[in-house]
C-alpha cells in the first residue's frame, strides 16, 4: 500500500478544550472542511477509552481516505491500524518506533530546537512538528516560544517537511509557510470555533492561496 503523503493541514482532535464533539465527529467535520491529516490527541483518560475513541476516529478517516496519526501511543496506532504516530520528546524513541513500525508508517516527531529536529530526522522521522512558534494555551508548560526566525532555522536544517505548531491562526499561515514550513498543525482555533468545518475551510483556503505565491518545494 505504501506510505501516505504528509499533509499540509493537520487538525488535532480534542475533547479537553471543548466537549461539543467527540473525536470521530470532529474528524468528520474537519475532513469535510479540507483537512488532509487528522491527528488523534487525547492526553487524559484510560487506555481502553482512548482505544475506543481512536478506533471510531480511524473508521471515519479510513472511509474518507485521509491519514490518521495517533499522538504519543504506538500501541494504539497499531491497534486501530492508523497511518502514523506523532512522538514527543518524552515519548517512545523515534529510531525504535521506526524499527517496530516499518518503513511505510508515518512517524512525526516534536522538536523545539534545531538539534532536536536534526536528531529526529536522522532517527527516521518523516516530518517534524516544530514549535511553539507562537504562544499557546494547549500545553501546561510549553517550551519557550520560538517565533518565525526559529521556525526558519529548523526548516533550513532538515530536508523533511516541517509542520508549524502552537498558536497557529489563519492570519499566521502566510508567515509560517513563507518561513519554509511545509504545513501547519491546528487544534483549538478549529475545535473551539463556532463551526469547526467552516474554520477548517478557512485554513485550507489560506494555505492554498499562500502556496500559489511560493516557489515549489521538493519536500513531500
Task: Describe it.
It is built from nine helices and eight strands. It is of the alpha/beta class. It has an eight-stranded parallel beta barrel with strand order 1-2-3-4-5-6-7-8, surrounded by six helices. Strand 1 (9-12), helix 1 and strand 2 form a beta-alpha-beta unit. Helix 1 (23-33) packs parallel to helix 2 (47-64).
Quick structural gist:
The chain is of the alpha/beta class. The chain has nine helices and eight strands. 41% of the residues lie in helices and 15% in strands.
Indicate the topology.
Blueprint: E1 9-12, H1 23-33, E2 37-40, H2 47-64, E3 68-71, H3 74-79, E4 84-87, H4 94-101, E5 106-111, H5 114-123, E6 127-130, H6 147-157, E7 162-164, H7 173-178, E8 183-186, H8 188-191, H9 196-211
Parallel strand pairs: 1-2, 1-8, 2-3, 3-4, 4-5, 5-6, 6-7, 7-8
Helix pairs in contact: 1-2, 1-9
Mean pLDDT: 93
What percent of residues are in strands? 15-25%
Give the biggest sheet: 8 strands, parallel, barrel
Q: Helicity, in percent?
A: 40-55%
| Total DSSP E strands | 8
Amino acid at each position: 500500500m505504501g506510505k501516505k503523503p504528509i499533509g499540509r493541514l493537520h487538525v488535532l482532535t480534542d475533547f479537553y478544550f471543548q466537549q461539543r464533539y467527540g473525536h470521530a465527529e470532529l474528524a468528520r467535520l474537519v475532513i469535510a472542511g479540507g483537512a488532509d491529516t487528522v491527528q488523534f490527541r487525547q492526553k487524559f483518560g484510560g487506555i481502553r477509552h482512548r482505544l475506543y475513541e481512536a478506533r471510531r476516529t480511524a473508521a471515519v478517516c479510513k472511509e474518507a481516505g485521509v491519514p490518521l496519526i495517533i499522538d504519543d501511543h504506538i500501541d494504539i496506532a497499531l491497534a486501530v491500524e492508523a497511518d502514523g504516530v506523532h512522538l514527543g520528546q518524552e515519548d517512545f524513541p523515534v529510531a525504535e518506533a521506526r524499527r517496530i513500525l516499518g518503513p511505510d508508517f508515518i512517524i512525526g516527531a516534536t522538536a523545539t530546537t534545531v538539534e532536536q529536529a536534526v536528531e529526529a530526522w536522522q532517527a527516521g522521522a518523516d516530518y517534524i512538528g516544530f514549535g511553539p512558534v507562537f504562544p499557546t494555551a494547549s500545553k501546561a508548560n510549553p517550551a519557550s516560544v520560538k517565533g518565525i526566525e526559529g521556525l526558519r532555522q529548523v526548516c533550513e536544517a532538515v530536508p523533511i517537511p516541517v509542520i508549524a505548531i502552537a498558536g497557529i491562526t489563519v492570519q499566521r499561515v502566510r508567515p509560517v509557510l513563507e518561513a519554509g514550513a511545509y504545513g501547519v498543525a491546528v487544534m483549538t482555533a478549529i475545535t473551539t470555533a463556532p463551526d469547526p468545518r467552516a474554520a477548517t475551510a478557512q485554513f485550507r483556503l489560506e494555505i492554498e492561496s499562500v502556496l500559489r505565491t511560493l516557489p515549489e518545494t521538493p519536500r513531500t
